[in-house]
Amino acid sequence: MGLFEGKKGLVFGIANDHSIAWAITQQLHAEGAEMGFTHLPDKDPERPRMERRLRKLVDDFDKFILPCDVQNEENLDAVFAKAKEEFGEIDFVLHSIAYAPMDDLKGPVHNVSRDGFKLSMEISCYSLISLASRARKILKPGGNILSLTYLGGEKVIPGYNIMGVCKSALESTIEYLANELGPEGFRVNALSAGPLKTLSSSAVGEFDQMTKLYESFSPLRRNITPEEVGKTGMFLMSDQASGISGENLHVDAGYHIMGAPPHDVQSAN
């Protein structure tokens, strides 16, 4: 019997088969979870590219698929109404949503436009608050919310720029939500993965250089795999992690603990 046998939840943010949310979803499915999914609304209903891309991945096991723009209150209400209709109550929500306009993401933080800042923060951070406020109405006791972050929310990662500011706000939001929802029996956590080749990471500068740094500097002297991230995400959302809330769990081969290059790297240089 799988860890998620009989459990139901919602997944927001699978862009393609390289998404971290997809790596976690595969593990949830393998453990027996039933899930509803969302995708960005397609601009052209005659050519539903976003919907098709998601269906190609989850069509064998999804309970439902709906379009959802997290800036649209009606879209959000429709998703949670559908979840209540299909599931009654849910056990988990996976939030894997982040965005910044390319011009603002590529440039330095001091150059970010006012509109770009507001948009980036609304989609990357406020969206979690929107989901949490709705989820708590249908979450079972012991239910949980998991969001995805990155080390750039804690430390300066050149090239991560405004997204680092957004992730910092997201991580603080997770702690506040964990405190507020805890008395109701709900957990809220974050997973901070090392660099993986995703649609989001492709927009961040010097990604290849970053993976080489992880391979050289991390205590395990390697980068991580999507499967490792997927298993950790599944663990955090399972009853095995029932005592964990407000946590930001790093899956990065230990890179985040390093304050200077290891001796063997220094001597090699």
Task: Summarize the topology.
Blueprint: E1 8-12, H1 20-30, E2 34-39, H2 49-58, E3 62-67, H3 73-87, E4 90-95, H4 102-106, H5 114-135, E5 139-149, H6 161-181, E6 187-193, H7 207-217, H8 226-237, E7 248-251, H9 263-268
Parallel strand pairs: 1-2, 1-4, 2-3, 4-5, 5-6, 6-7
Helix pairs in contact: 1-8, 5-6
What does this structure look like?
- The protein has 269 residues and is of the alpha/beta class.
- The protein has one domain (8-268): 3-Layer(aba) Sandwich (Rossmann fold).
- Helices cover 42% and strands 17% of the residues.
- The chain has helices at 20-30, 49-58, 73-87, 102-106, 114-135, 161-181, 207-217, 226-237, 263-268; strands at 8-12, 34-39, 62-67, 90-95, 139-149, 187-193, 248-251.
- A seven-stranded parallel beta sheet has the order 3-2-1-4-5-6-7, sandwiched between helices.
- The mean pLDDT is 93.
Instruction: Give helix % range.
Output: 40-55%
**Major sheet characteristics:** 7 strands, parallel
Report the mean per-residue pLDDT as an integer.
Answer: 93
Query: Which stretches are low in confidence, meaning pLDDT under 50 for 5 or more residues running?
Result: none
Assess the beta-strand content as a share of residues: 15-25%
Number of strands: 7
Feature tags:
269 residues; Rossmann fold; 9 helices; 7-stranded parallel β-sheet; alpha/beta
Quick recap:
With 269 residues, this protein is α/β, with parallel strands linked by helices. It has helices at residues 20-30, 49-58, 73-87, 102-106, 114-135, 161-181, 207-217, 226-237, 263-268; strands at 8-12, 34-39, 62-67, 90-95, 139-149, 187-193, 248-251.
